[in-house]
Amino acid sequence: MAARITATILPILSLLLLLAGTGAADDDKAFVYAGCSQGRYDAGTQYESGVDSVLTSLANSAPYSPYANTTSPSAAAPVAGLYQCRSDLAAAVCSGCVRSAISRLSSLCSWSTGGAVQLHDCFVRYGNDSFVGKPNTAVLFKKCGGSPGDAGGVAMRDSALGALAAAAAPAGGGYRAGGSGGVQAMSQCVGDLDAKACSDCVSAAAAQLKAGCGSATAGEVYLGKCYARFWSNGGGFASSDAVHGERLFLAVAGGFFASVVYFSLVLA
Fold it and tell me: Which residues cross the membrane (predicted)?
């Protein structure tokens, strides 16, 4: 079943949004969203060399660490970049995901001065703004689906998400996982956040899912520097029909994502 996306976009930012098909939640490279700045750079410039240097460095780091950030050596045209894999992934899976994300950036955001792409299990971003180390709890993408549940399922979901938010900040990557009854939940922060900023981001993500997903039995939300998901033990999004009529939000303040964008998803 094909998806048709309609959008109203303010002029500062071009954003691309696709919905992965059936079973995509099991694919670590499934596409979630991408953003490309409208600022452009020219071929043969120091900025082009900086982008190439940063993305190459990130790809080379991915087999060894779930998170890395780097800055190009040129003081005249600096480029910063980072990636974050889900911290419990095997190194080979992380590396493959990051390389796939970089390939997406190269095709979707070619010649853009800044870009970001979120795949199911990794995130890559580059640009000339100072985003590294700065918290960002603005909502980039939210999806709720699955078969409608009951009050007991909602209570288990809220308990599972609440436990994520209340958990002590884990060492080495910000990955949290847990469950309550028949509901599982997980979250991941970008590695440039300190422990408090990570906890604050997870709390904000959990609040978005609790407030926005009603009795849905699966949901996921991606904020600027973290994401969270929940699903019933029976599985996640069973089919593309599960999100018919859902509203997907992209509303971000500050930094690279400086515009407000509203998307409505209609399944044809």
Answer: 248-267
Identify the structural domains of the chain with CATH numbers, from first to last: 3-127 (3.30.430.20), 139-238 (3.30.430.20)
Q: What is the pLDDT of residues 110-162, one digit of tens each?
A: 999 999 999 999 999 999 988 998 999 999 999 998 777 777 889 999 999 99
Q: What phi, psi does 59 have (nearest 5°)?
A: -60, -40
* 42-57 pLDDT tens trace: 999 999 999 999 999 9
SS3 of residue 83 by DSSP: strand
Helix, strand, coil shares, percent, the chain, to 5? 30, 35, 40
- Indicate if the pLDDT at residue 267 is higher than 60: no
Q: Which amino acid is at 263?
A: F
The CA-CA-CA angle for residues 32, 219, 31, to 5°, reads: 10
Name the DSSP class of 20.
-
The CA–CA distances, whole Å, from 182 to 83, 156, 188, 221, 268 equal: 32, 7, 21, 20, 32
What is d(CA 140, CA 32) in angstroms, rounded to the nearest whole number?
Answer: 10
Output the pLDDT for position 28. Answer: 76
